[in-house]
Amino acid sequence: MDVIKNILCKVRKLKKILVFALLLRNICIIVAYIVRFYCVIEAVDFLYLNVIMKKIINNSVEDGGQLSSKFRIQTFGNFEVFLDDKPLVFRRTKTKELLAYLVSRQGALCNNNEIIAIIWENKEDSPSLKSMFRTLVADLLQTLSAAGICDIIIKHRGHIGIIKEKISCDLFDFLTGINTKSYMGEYMTQYSWAENTNLYLRTYINSF
């Protein structure tokens, strides 16, 4: 009798183990489905975001640039940024120069170290300069955000640039033939690094 009782006891324990194993298996299956569902949702959201961003940029271009009526950039002569035909005030001169350099690169993503070497051309690279650069970027984004135009900047893995299609700029208009008479031989005159571009523009206009 004792043997039978032991066998029955072991059978009960085995049944409990099997029930627990089946329950654990079902939980794992449910978790796997939840993870797969979440991944699908994330992928859909990412694709939807890309579509929305493309529509925003395309609509901006098709409408002739929705920002052009309130926001424009002047590069010929002194570099200046206008909002509702009034100069945009920058708290730091280097912040304004940072935006000027990004505009000069015409939408190309610029490496952070490249910009540091341009803006602080007479200083050696150092952690303090990198910290100052991060401060400039934050100040630029804050200044543009306060003016309602922060979406013209793009950042990606140690690079920063402008979204050219969202900016009304005399340089861009000149190079695309919209206004070929706006250039009078001067380009961002307050920045020494802009002289190479100015020489190119002079050569470019003399080729016609």
How would you portray this structure in words?
The protein has about 210 residues and is of the alpha+beta class. The chain folds into 2 domains: about 1-60; about 70-205, Orthogonal Bundle (Arc Repressor Mutant, subunit A). Helices cover about 55% and strands about 10% of the residues. The protein has 6 helices and 7 strands. It has helices spanning about 1-60, 95-105, 110-120, 125-145, 170-175, 195-205, and strands spanning about 70-75, 80-85, 85, 110, 155, 160, 170. The chain has a 4-stranded mixed β-sheet with strand order 3-2-1-7. β5 (about 155) and β6 form a beta hairpin. The N and C termini lie far apart (about 110 Å).
Structure in a nutshell:
This protein is an alpha+beta fold.
Structural class: alpha+beta
User: What's the total number of strands?
Assistant: 7
The value of Rg in angstroms is 30 Å
User: How would the global form be characterised?
Assistant: elongated
Q: How can the largest sheet be summarized?
A: 4 strands, mixed
The CATH C-level class name of the largest domain: Mainly Alpha
Biggest sheet strand line-up: 3-2-1-7
Distance between the termini: 112 Å
Q: How much of the polypeptide forms β-strand, as a percent range? A: 5-15%
CATH superfamily of the largest domain: Winged helix-like DNA-binding domain superfamily/Winged helix DNA-binding domain
